[in-house]
């Protein structure tokens, strides 16, 4: 079957499932991810002019590699699956794009030669590829993780195994996944004296995507480790607290409601997960010809305006907890700002927001409007 996205045309084998033809080696649900990748690569080339080589580490149909090559990158596509490698070659040829295609274990490819940009887009956890990527990438590591249940603590043991961290299932589960993932990646990079700075991160329909700019300096690795810490979360009133540092000093009872149903998660990444000025540049690189342009631009706007707070709230969940009706989000956030707090929407859902107010302060600032 034929697929067109971002100006390139791909032929991918189809398979009949429940009478619907589905593409093998091509995930249409990741088109937003790929459109943002291309826009990010364009913006990144302006930021770091020496960046020219791009490794599509799990190329499958070759779609990312073809799109990056069409954009002028010096592309290497890699896959362990022979059928995928053949397909990637055909799709490159179909679009008159030149790229090297490797039928090898990508960890071996990464250890053999350095790349400016490495893109890890595996099925499931990216951690088996993280060490080789950080040891051999010069500038930017792009990572997709699709194992959101382990990342957010819903599949607890699997999350602990993959990420060497304790994830907890909270009302901000997608962001728990973001912060567990970046924590594990930062610790992996630090082993090679590499510091990471997340310049764009989003959690969208069952995957987390983050773009980490690298600095090859031990002091930068130390600075990244300094962004790690723990989250203490009250299951009763949804109070949460961030505690910087690798040594936890957990709260036994909730300082807000006095309850003892406290969850402890960590080490998680507590630092910023985006660079707003860079995201504005990414947004400018999304042309209307991209199929997901409206969603991708809206996502950039929301993410760029998000406060640098390590967790978000869901207004509906708070109001349900308080036994009060929810009001319009804009009015709710205006009440918080009028009371002197910072407040922004968050990209995790239509009723999610970030603020520097704690759960008691949020209620005091907004409840008069919720009667
Ligand atoms: Zn509490």
From TrEMBL:
Binding site for Zn(2+): 234, 237, 254, 257
Alphabetically ordered keywords of this record: Metal-binding, Methyltransferase, RNA-binding, S-adenosyl-L-methionine, Transferase, tRNA processing, tRNA-binding, Zinc
Species of the source: Natrinema limicola JCM 13563
Function in brief: Dimethylates a single guanine residue at position 26 of a number of tRNAs using S-adenosyl-L-methionine as donor of the methyl groups.
Pfam families assigned: TRM
Domain of life: Archaea
Residue ranges of coiled coil: none
Protein name: tRNA (guanine(26)-N(2))-dimethyltransferase
Any one GO molecular function term: tRNA binding
């Amino acid at each position: 079957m034929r697929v067109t996205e971002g100006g390139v045309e791909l032929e991918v084998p189809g398979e009949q499932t429940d009478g619907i033809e589905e593409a093998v080696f091509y995930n249409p649900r990741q088109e937003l991810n790929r459109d943002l990748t291309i826009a990010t690569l364009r913006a990144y080339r302006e930021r770091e002019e020496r960046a020219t080589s791009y490794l599509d580490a799990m190329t499958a149909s070759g779609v990312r590699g073809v799109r990056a090559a069409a954009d002028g990158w010096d592309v290497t596509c890699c896959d362990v699956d022979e059928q995928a490698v053949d397909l990637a070659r055909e799709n490159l040829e179909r679009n008159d794009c030149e790229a090297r295609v490797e039928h090898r274990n990508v960890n071996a490819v990464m250890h053999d030669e350095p790349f400016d940009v490495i893109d890890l887009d595996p099925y499931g956890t990216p951690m088996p590829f993280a060490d080789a990527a950080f040891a051999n990438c010069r500038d930017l590591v792009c990572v997709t993780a699709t194992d959101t249940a382990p990342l957010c603590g819903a599949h607890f043991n699997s999350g602990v195994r993959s990420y060497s961290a304790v994830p907890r299932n909270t009302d901000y589960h997608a962001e728990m996944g973001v912060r567990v993932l970046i924590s594990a990646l930062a610790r992996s990079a630090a082993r090679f004296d590499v510091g990471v700075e997340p310049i764009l991160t989003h959690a969208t329909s069952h995957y987390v995507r983050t773009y980490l700019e690298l600095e090859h300096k031990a002091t930068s690795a130390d600075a990244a480790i300094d962004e790690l810490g723990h989250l203490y979360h009250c299951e009763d009133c949804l109070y949460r607290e961030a505690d910087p540092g690798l040594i936890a000093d957990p709260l036994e009872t909730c300082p807000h409601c006095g309850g003892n149903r406290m969850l402890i998660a960590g080490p998680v990444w507590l630092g910023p997960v985006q660079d707003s000025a860079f995201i504005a540049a990414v947004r400018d690189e999304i042309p209307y010809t991209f199929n997901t342009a409206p969603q991708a631009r809206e996502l950039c706007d929301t993410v760029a305006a998000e406060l640098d707070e390590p967790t978000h709230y869901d207004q509906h969940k708070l109001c349900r907890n308080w036994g009060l009706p929810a009001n319009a989000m804009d009015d709710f956030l205006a009440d918080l700002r009028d009371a002197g707090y910072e407040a922004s929407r968050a990209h995790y859902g239509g009723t999610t927001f970030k603020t520097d107010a704690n759960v008691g302060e949020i209620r005091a600032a907004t409840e008069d409007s919720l009667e």
